[in-house]
Design brief:
Strand content: under 5%
Number of strands: 0
Largest sheet: none
InterPro entries: Phageshock_PspB
Organism: Pseudoalteromonas rhizosphaerae
Keywords: Membrane, Transmembrane, Transmembrane helix
Distance between the termini: 70 Å
Pfam family, one: PspB
Low-confidence stretches: none
Protein name: Envelope stress response membrane protein PspB
Structural class: mainly alpha
Mean pLDDT: 88
């Protein structure tokens, strides 16, 4: 059959070294996710939202200009 003693050392090493590190890193990442956005990330998100609003306004302006200059432009796309 097979020798069970071959698996004892790797299992012990896994349980003593790998498993605790795995659990520590897992729960540390869970804690960071549950804390939400940092102040810096929140500020960046607001800046990106403002830039997206500006870009949406520019797209609307561009579409209005194209509608006046080339009314068939939407069909070409």
């Amino acid at each position: 059959m097979f020798d069970a003693e071959v698996f004892v050392a790797p299992i012990i090493i896994f349980m003593v070294v790998v498993a605790p590190l795995w659990l520590i890193l897992h729960y540390r990442s869970k804690k960071q996710v549950s804390q939400g956005l940092s102040e810096h990330e929140h500020r960046q998100l607001l800046e990106l939202a403002q830039k997206a609003d500006k870009m949406a306004d520019r797209v609307e302006t561009l579409e209005a200009l194209l509608d006046q200059e080339a009314p068939q432009w939407r069909r070409k796309v």
